[in-house]
Amino acid sequence: MDSSIVKVGPSGYYYQGVWQALGGTTVRQFNASAISQCLKGKVVHMCGDSTVRQFFEFLNAALPGLKEFDLHSQRLAGPFMALDYANNILVKFRFHAPPIQSPPVLTNMLRYIANEIDDLIGGTDTVVVFGIWAHFATYPMQIYIRRLKSIHRAVVRLLDRAPGTVVIIRTGTPRDVTLIYNDWHSLQCYKVLRTMFKGLNVHLIDAWEMVLAHHLPHNVHPPPPIVGNMINVLLSYTCPQMGG
């Protein structure tokens, strides 16, 4: 992310259903073959809430060679793991630690994102993707800021020991509004996250703008057309010279 002052505004637009980013990395289109080529020899660590789990599910469905292991995990929380043996691709997902607003989850299945990042060796064969926001919607902003600070410190340590590691952050999004959720709080989380990580060598999937600009109704879990565009952004950061 650029170290300049964070400004909230349009970061792109859709043309014929395809996300066109304004400035920064060119977003390329990846078919199944190109995805496999991009991720070949890489380990993708995904951490966060169910909106990041959507990325794991998308790749698992899109890549015929990617086979999920049955870890006998809880259906919503994981952890999950999938391997493409032929292309040496490993994709993992783990849910973040509390607060969690969902059905009961075994606590031994949960880990703080900062701890997960600290356990990584890192390197050019490592991609870290995380997103954390949805389950903080009913908590004071100070709680969210404190969590982001710990993740920020872990990311700094990771990039110090392995500068070639690709770190990608998924922002929050507008969501279906209910009595206990509203977009005002989500927007504050979005602004705080962008401010917290500015100046670091990390990449941002601006999910907020990608949902806001799309014609489909807002949902905490964006529909497949939007998730597919987010995956293209993720892969464009991972393999900026590729596309297909």
TrEMBL record:
<feature type="domain" description="NXPE C-terminal">
    <location>
        <begin position="19"/>
        <end position="239"/>
    </location>
</feature>
<dbReference type="Pfam" id="PF24536">
    <property type="entry name" value="NXPE4_C"/>
</dbReference>
<protein>
    <recommendedName>
        <fullName>NXPE C-terminal domain-containing protein</fullName>
    </recommendedName>
</protein>
<dbReference type="InterPro" id="IPR057106">
    <property type="entry name" value="NXPE4_C"/>
</dbReference>
